[in-house]
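Following up on my earlier message about sulfoquinovose-uridine-C1,5'-diphosphate. Here are the inputs again, as you asked, copied directly from the submission form:
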Amino acid sequence: MILGIDGYLGWPLALRLSAAGHKVSGMDNLFTRKAVQEVGSDSGLPILTMEERVRAAKELKGFRIKFYRGDITKYKKLYSVIKKEKPDTIIDFAEERSAPYSMRDHMHAAYAMQNNIVGTINLIYAARELNANIRIIKMGTMGEYGTPNFDIPEAPYMKALLDGKEDIITTPKWAGSWYHWTKVHDTNNLLLANKLWGLTVTNIMQGPVYGTRTKDITDQRLFTRFDFDETWGTVVNRYCAEAVLGIPLTVYGKGGQTRGFLSLEDSVEALRLLVENPAEKGAFRTVNQFRELFSVMQLAEYVQTAAKSAGIDVGIGHVDNPRVEKEEHYYNVERKVLPDLGFDKLKHNIREELVGMLMDLKEQRQRLEQYRSAIMPKTMWR
Ligand code: USQ
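Thanks, got it. Here's what our run produced:
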């Protein structure tokens, strides 16, 4: 069961798991569709309604994906859907997933806190009451850690020595937005549920994702959403849309901000591996999920080069950083779980991926043009 099945990752994962022979159901309150319009934008790729998509997946691929419209912060609804579907695994993406959105003002910060934290606690209780053996796979974020000067471990706990005394503490977190903090609070709540009741949890710390498609998206009717505005778009997706619109790529500040990036195809494949190779019963498994580390400046250069081969000349612009974050820093992350499952052997080529994205977006130029004014950053974090 995929909570947040209508989202950028949720829908392609439903296709991937169906293609792998799993029985897939999902729930979504369709919040992202409305919230993107709220900031004067829309998906850069045209997407069907959930009902139409489910029909298209059946016609084109023979998949039977079940969709429930509902909000996981409404406990009774979540409880009744899990009770009916009896999933063995629940993947939870059903959260407000934009840092800039949570930084707009008090109302948006409070929404992110309430929606994300209440949703997770509802999932914890529903799983405990209905079937404590359900495997929970929760989408967290690499941003929970911030950008520390130590190597980021792939573990929920670590040894600490304080004033000569040693103990186990939770891995230190230092998030940089209200959104990223909601994920830290979720992690803490899942850790307690695991400790108290032995719930089986895979907590994914994922970096920013980029891409317009996966290998299952073979027809326009199966498109997933693609956001590129200042609030909902992630950096590489924004650069590619900007290139198509002839806007110099918006590197924030010095551009030394380094993150762990992965493509949409990598993300759904990693998730499939985690679903099919579950955590041991009663375990709490932390997964640092990304493919490669890049600075946002390096990525701008990659996109610029890929754009050239797609017949587009675009410059690199420097924008005053609207965020409060380190623009030059140490960043090293442990990554063992996915490589042990064979992830690093999967075919991957960022250059090809970027050229493919630019080609897809070139076809949507007129659509992107309508939302040009939503691109430059206006939400200041100070
Ligand atoms: N950035 C630019 N130019 C832009 C947009 C962003 O230089 O036009 C920079 C930001 O300043 C930041 C970095 O790119 O340093 C990443 O920003 P982002 O908007 O791509 O990603 P972020 O806000 O961190 O959030 C995204 C997803 C979120 C996920 C997170 C993973 O929206 O759901 O949790 O990536 S991570 O970044 O590892 O925390």
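One observation from looking it over: Residues 97-99, 141-143, 180, 207-208, 234-235, 238, 250-252, 257, 259, 296, 323, 325 surround sulfoquinovose-uridine-C1,5'-diphosphate (CB under 6 Å). Hope that helps, and feel free to reply on this thread.
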